[in-house]
Amino acid sequence: MDSYILKTEKLCKKFGKQQVVNNISLMVERNSIYGLLGPNGAGKSTTLKMITGLLRPTSGNIIFDGHPWDRKDLKDIGALIESPALYGNLTAKENLKVHTKLLDLPDSEAREVLEIVDLKNTGKKRASQFSMGMKQRLGIAIALLTHPKLLILDEPTNGLDPIGIQELRELIRSFPSQGITVILSSHMLSEVEQVAQHIGIVSNGILGYQNEIHKDDDLEKLFMKIVKESRKEGEASND
Angle at Cα 28 formed by Cα 132 and Cα 224, nearest 5°? Predict the structure, then answer.
């Protein structure tokens, strides 16, 4: 079995003449947490949307679980990109039931994922009354329904209070032991540093760094160095 659940090979995405993702080659180890870091607008979300089939790459390859990515692989990829799409007038259980019906899954799957994300005791409370953290956890529960091998979370702590961030952090840390690899995208270095084993730093559409996180690494210094270098390269290419 390949030790990498996901590889991208020189992945590119252009919108018209604008190069948003430029030759990104990710290597994501199985049963790990991979932090995809970069400032806003760096190309992180576009990269993740290609991996989840929401966008078609301009060029490059995606290798998932040892073979070229295919739409059938989406059953093994769960994702929460941007805000979760919830029915505000429904409870957590009812929201999940909509998805189990669509996916032809038993209701027991809904009970299982509600327990994983600690929302099993929300009763008749409607999703519109949930805190931001509860909404994020419900979005993750929906992404977990198919028992994915890979879970993609794009800026999951946006808008959360410190308690919500702590709860979500603990939840994310629990996934690799359940056989779920996580890609966590964020522009917040401190968040990624506390949960990830590996990081990739993207800036200006380019993957400037990728490696395992070591205890003595000065990630803030490294992050700033990569971002400044990529901006200089972008300015030079525009001259």
Answer: 70
pLDDT on residue 214: 84
Backbone angles phi, psi at 19, to 5 degrees: -90, 105
Looking up tokens 């949930």 gives 130
Tokens of 111: 């009970």
Domains of the chain, first to last: 4-236 (3.40.50.300)
Q: Which residue has the tokens 């559409």?
A: 205
Q: Using an 8 Å Cβ cutoff, are 98 and 47 in contact? A: no
Could you tell me if residue 175 is left (phi over 0), alpha (psi between -120 and 50 degrees) or otherwise beta?
A: alpha
Q: What are the pLDDT digits (tens) for 3-35?
A: 999 999 999 999 999 999 999 999 999 999 999
Q: In this model, does residue 49 exceed pLDDT 90?
A: yes
Query: What does the block give as tokens for 91?
Result: 């409870």
Q: How many CB atoms lie within 10 A of CB 143?
A: 22
Taking alpha carbons only, the member of 143, 166, 149 closest to residue 83 is: 143
Percentages of the chain per state (helix, strand, coil), in multiples of 5: 40, 30, 35
User: Could you tell me the two tokens for 146?
Assistant: 């198919």
Say how far apart CA 156 and CA 92 lie, in whole Å: 18
Q: 147: burial class by Cβ within 10 Å (0-12, 13-18, 19+)?
A: middle
Which pTM value belongs to this model?
0.89
